[in-house]
Amino acid sequence: MSVLLPNMADFDTIYELEDEEDEHVVSEEHLPRYCPEPVVMRGAGHITVFGLSNRFDTEFPSVLTGKVAPEEFKTSISRVNACLKKNLPVNVKWLLCGCLCCCCTVGCSLWPVICLNKRTRRSIHKLLEWENNRLYHKLGLHWKLSKRKCESSNMMEYVILIEFLPKYPIFRPD
Question: How far is residue 130's CA from residue 128's CA, in Å, rounded to a whole number?
Fold first, then answer.
């Protein structure tokens, strides 16, 4: 029984095969992904300072059924509302003082309110990032504070967007 062995010098050489078939390789960016529209949580409070409402509604949206537990959702919204409850009354007081002194200070008295509002937004961003890392990214969701145009007027408001992270096709070979 004789076995034909290839030339040992060509043993480690890698050759490219030229297929006559047209193979279309599609990158992951071009693969279709199912991603529903984000859930928009609008402010439900009666006071709004520079587009930031003093609270968000804790009512569980039906779109999130099966994605997140209603208790977790309510806890997250309650944390955001607690942050707003702590910071927004101070912002309102500074806004009133700034408006009273605005004529004398040529508008400079409104700077503390702008800075406090920015600090409040940053703290909500940090809180939502912590919530995302702790729970929601594992569930395929991403929460963020976003500026949107009001439906009723040309004013801008801050809303919480709950985005669905895209699902990657797992049946595609590596």
Answer: 5
DSSP type of residue 42: -
Length of the chain: 174
- Residue 140 sits at the vertex; the CA angle it makes with 172 and 120, to the nearest 5 degrees, is 145
Distances (CA, A) of 72 to 10, 46, 85, 117: 63, 25, 20, 27
The residues with which 149 forms a beta bridge, in sequence order, are 156
SS3 41: strand
Q: Which amino acid is at 54?
A: N
What predicted TM-score, i.e. pTM, was given to this entire model? 0.71
Q: In terms of Cα–Cα distance, which of 72, 81, 90 is closest to 124?
A: 81
Which residues are CB-neighbours of 137 under 8 A, at least 6 positions away?
165
pLDDT in tens, 114-158: 788 889 999 999 999 999 999 999 999 999 999 998 888 888 999
Q: How far apart are CA 92 and CA 168, in angstroms?
A: 45
